[in-house]
Amino acid sequence: MKFKKPLLFIAALVASFLIASALTTVSKPSNYSESYPAVVCPPTLNGLTSQISISSRKTQYQRLENRSSKTLPFNVLRFPVSKDSLVITAEGTTPLIWQSRAGSWAGGTLCSGPSAAAWFVGGTANVTTRGRLMLINSGLSDAIVDIQSFTENAKQPIKSVNLKSKSYMQLSIDSLAPGDKALAVQVIPRSGRVNAYMIDEQGAGLKALGGDFVNSYPTAAKELVIPAIPNQLPKKGQTASTSHTLRILTPGDVNTTFTLEVLSADGSFVPVGLSSQSIEAGVVTEFSLAPKISASAFAVRITSAEPVVASISSSVTIGGHKDFVWSTATPPLTPMSIAVTGLSPLIAFAGDAIAVKVQAKLINGKTVTTVVKGSDIATWRVPANARSITILATSKEVFAGALIASSNGYGFIPIQNGSALTRVEIPNSNIRVLNP
Amino acid sequence: MAVTDRHLVTAIVVTHDGETWLPAVVAALASQTRPADQIMAVDTASNDSSTKLIKAARIPLIAADRDCGFGDAVALAVAKMPKHIEGNSEWIWLIHDDCAPAPTALEKLLEAIDDRPQVAMVGPKLLGWHDRTHILEAGISIAGNGARWTGLEANEYDQGQHDGIHDVLSVSTAGALIRRDIFEELGGFDSNLSLFRDDIDFGWRARVAGHAVIATTSAVAHHAQASASERRSIDVNGAFLHRPLLLDRRNAAYVLLANSSWWMIPWLSIQLLASAMARSIGYLLAKLPGYAADELLAVATLIVKPAEIVKARKFRKTKRLVSARVISSYIPPRWSQIRLSAARVAETIRERVIPAAESTPGSAPNSLEDEDLLVPNQRFHISKLMKNPAIFGYLLLAIITLAQSRNRLGALNGGALAASPSGARDLWGLYFESWHQVGMGSSHASPAWIAVVALASTLLLGKTPLLITLFFLVAPLLMMWSAHTFLRKLSSNQFITIPASFLYALCPVALASLNSGRLATLIALIIAPQIPMVLSSWKQVELNSWRRIYGLSILLAVLTSFTLITTVVSLGVIGFAIVSDYDEKLEKPQFLARLYKRLTLLIFPFLLVAPYSFEALVRPARALAEPGLNLAGGPSALVLLGNPGGAGSLPWWSISPILLLLIIALFSSSHARIFAQVGISFLCVAVIFSSISITVHGNSSGTSTWVGTLLVGTTLASVAAGVVILDRLRTVLISSNIHYRHILAGLLLIITAIYSISSIGWSITAGADSPVQSNTKQVMPAFLTAEADTKTLVLREVGSEDSKSIQYYISRGEDISLGEPDVAPGQVREIEIAAQELIDGSGIGSSQVFSAYGIKYVFVKNPFNRNVIRTIDGLGGFARTSATSAGVVWRVTGVTGRIIFTTKDGTRSVLEAGEVGARTTVSGPGSITLTETFDRSWQILQNGYRLDRAKDEHSLPQFQVKEAGEISLLHDGTIRRAWLSLQLIAWTLAIILAAPAGRRKREISEKELA
Questions:
Q1: In A76-180, which ranges are E strands?
Q2: A 188-207 residues with CB below 8 A of B?
Q3: Which domain holds residue B847?
Q4: Which of A166, A347, B393, B912 is deepest in the core (most CB within 10 A)?
């Protein structure tokens, strides 16, 4: 054949290309190491009792001030803590801590990993307060933390504190802005592995006025959803229902307007006076909120022209004494798992189209799976004997919070991942880094 | 003719196998205007008809032994002469059998001495025998290194420029007139100088005896220099092996040592030895080992017989009347010797570069024709110049190169190119050192390209950054020139070869190599076109001379020094050729002749770059690596189109016509088909190799192989095929009706034009912002470079905005420089894990690991993920020391440094450390840990003894100290030095074998001598 040789060469070229294509492995530019960072639970302050819900008895923990790297298993599913802050290797299931002062208040929060920044919208610095801001450094190096406070009067000077390694400190929140009533605090760790928690406890003289954890939200945003706000319906003979107060702040330099929309089983609406309401930049503003709602919980969606932080304080009565609950904004729901042993929270899902597949793992090892559907708001009560709940799947832009009632008080817990899977790139050794 | 003067002249003719010249000599003697009063001849048993000729001329003949020297022969004749009468002006006129005096020679000689009674010896101007305008001598002297000094340039044309009577140290015995009484008084010629230099010795002795020696140029003689030019064998006593050079050098040394002052002898001995060695090297380079041996033997034969010198000196002392210093003015100054040598070298180079134009018969008269003179001179027009495709092409390429290099006008780095060190000394240091302070340290052999760049930098006064900048600027022009020298062998049409060469310089490989700092590929692009030019026939390789084979071996060795992929290619090509030879069933001698030459081309370049090449045998990935940083090449789909891909390469849409040309050429009936087959073969290998990942040069992650070097072969073959096709296509297209050839040619031209426009457009716009740029930025902040040789773990996010990755390496306080990536070690596994845990926050023990390996600081270069910075803050063992715009620095807690001393009770302290070695003191027994990679060459000496060396738990070298005292740490570089010595020998041998061979004087034809 005249063109045998040329065709052979072309065939060889095609074969080479096919071989090369087969040989080429899909090379990842980088490899990643995935892990759940250890979470930190707040310490138990004087007079309080704490219990941590864990999903597995084998979950390892370490007391914060323990210098050794050795960890111990809990061996129980609900662990009472007398004082220390605990560092827990939770491996994906976020532990939950429930604290209470007997006959006064109760509240809960998630044990979480270190955060870049945290907004606490709640608490007061006036004479009634007994609140505390707790700063925990679970790292092996010293930490520096900046605290920026805002009140109804003005933005306060930044306060910097140093934290020794493996230690915590508690600051009276009245020291942040003495005498001011409405407080919003931003905690910004400059260095170190820092967690922050806030307890707002109030009393007038010897009379306890209740208390709660003020849960944190990482950043100011133009749209916030506070998904679970308790709404105690008036008992027979009572006319007044639960009172709510919206505390809001735009931390930037520009004044803004916001609109608050109530999402409830009765429908969604904008309460009078909370549509395009203007607020001054850098000043904490409070608005009373008293929606007529027939359900025991509702949610609010706040939209603003400028980023804002907000939370809602709700007064409740439980066991004959008064308490209050700080409901805070939560991030959109994602698949996650939270330990709830010993608690039976009411979980409220808020969103335009709610479709959440949730699974409860019971103490006996069995699982119960439910699909929660609805619009605006849907609630689901966690079985009493559940050790953990897992969000298996969720529709977009759904927000969730949990409301827990106990004999001592009422609390709100954001449904979010306290120990998010961290995807860290595995670094490569390459001399190229030394070439400009 | 009657003799009117008062002198009595006896001409003494000494003959020794001189029949060639003797008739002319006898005739010259007979035709003297002032004939000699007496003529005598001494024959030293000539084997030819010399005796017959003398007898036929009726000259009295004295017979002497064949080994009788010139001086002895003259002495025999003088002895036979009538006794000298006191007061007579009696002269002996020495005539060699190859020296014909001009008719007026004797007359003029006598005229010169008439009013110069102090003259003992007078000589004529010696002109060439064949070329009678070539002045050989007009007086002679001797240089300090023994060289015969005439003060004339090589082949100097006699225009009377040296005419006159000159006071000289001596004159040649050829045609010399010597006063008989002084001759006898001084004892005649030294019998130890049977031939050569007897004239200088006699003149020297005459001078120190208070006499004068002059050369008169009005007297002329023509000298064939038969003995010196090896036209006849040397049989004199002591001239063993018939080696005139040996005798000449020995006698030169003898003259100097016997006549000079005592205090000059040590200095002269050194000069003689040094110059003998230098000349030996020169003769070795010219592949004249016999002459080289002569030079050394000449000095050796004198050294073994010192008594001869002592005796000669004693004899001279008895005849000395004036200080030996009178001679100094006749010894040529060193400056004159250097100037003359330089002029000779310059002339040799000039002759090679601009050979003298052969005058063609008739050309001169034509130019002088009246018609030409009447034609007015055409004026110079720039437009005319631009119509020359070569000038236009080079100029256009220069403009494009300048435009695309506008960000490269300074010290370059980026891409695969590391920053240049400030001077060539650093590069030489990197090449010669056995230990490299890179990362955790390595004893890898430095690649030979470092020596090549260092040598080039040295020639540029040590300015390495300038060299690199200039190289990147002129590389495209060099590529074009190199390609054009090859392509013009394929076609004489400059309108084809110049655009083809231009496109070769702007091919995808060239642009990608320039933009990403690929030194090896750039060198390959320049050298590759020269390879087929050096090797005239590859199929019948035995037809190439060995010299050509070694020349090509050197060319390949230079290429191999930059990239060992050359060896891989050679292995494939030569292996294929050997199999083909075997299949041809050649005769055994022919097969072996081919085999030896092919294997030489494979093995010799590989040996020349040893030991780097040997290390590649155990680390094969090196064979595919380029100098510098290990950057990824492109995907195989891009490679298939002739584009190597990777950083700085042409975008995919700028498709070159390389593949299309090769495919078209495959179906050609011309030898473009051969080029196409070669090109496709290179392309196949390149495509397959592009799918392979390699881990080299301090990069722990695999990167796809850069196949630019292989694509050079593809590109060159494609361009060559294109030239061959186009060269004959034009006539075919003109003479034929429109058919598929017209369509293909049109398609090819369109694609080529589109490629040209797109590639030029891209290279001068986006391409100018490629990775390689002049850059004065630094990675390491100044405060970290202040601490000498401190290890710092540097973390950086590297890569483009959308594909950043975290990378790290250990710095020794400075950024890396050229050559260092090639010797960079891989990372220690323990450090890898510690660095990983540092990033993910789980590294509670990372600081201990870093401390154990001597890493003192962790530096995170900005910009960097803030969360990671916070994570490091949270880890124990790292104390933040600074946070600036450059980045964040932590100090690793704990005692750490380069040399750590641990006492028996476990107390650690850091000892003072030098650059590589160190000298310091230990306070007592304990152990010394050197935080460098373990290597058998690490040694610590204390009180003259080596301390026991072992590996500690981190595999670092640890030495046990038994007592307090001073210690010396060193890295023994004996093996490296041995390799370098072998490499030097191998290169010298290669250069000698490839250099043009010198010829022995007897091999030079009479015509050339003339």
A1: 78-81, 86-89, 93-94, 96-101, 105-110, 118-121, 132-137, 143-151, 159-163, 167-172
A2: 189, 191-194
A3: 777-892
A4: A347
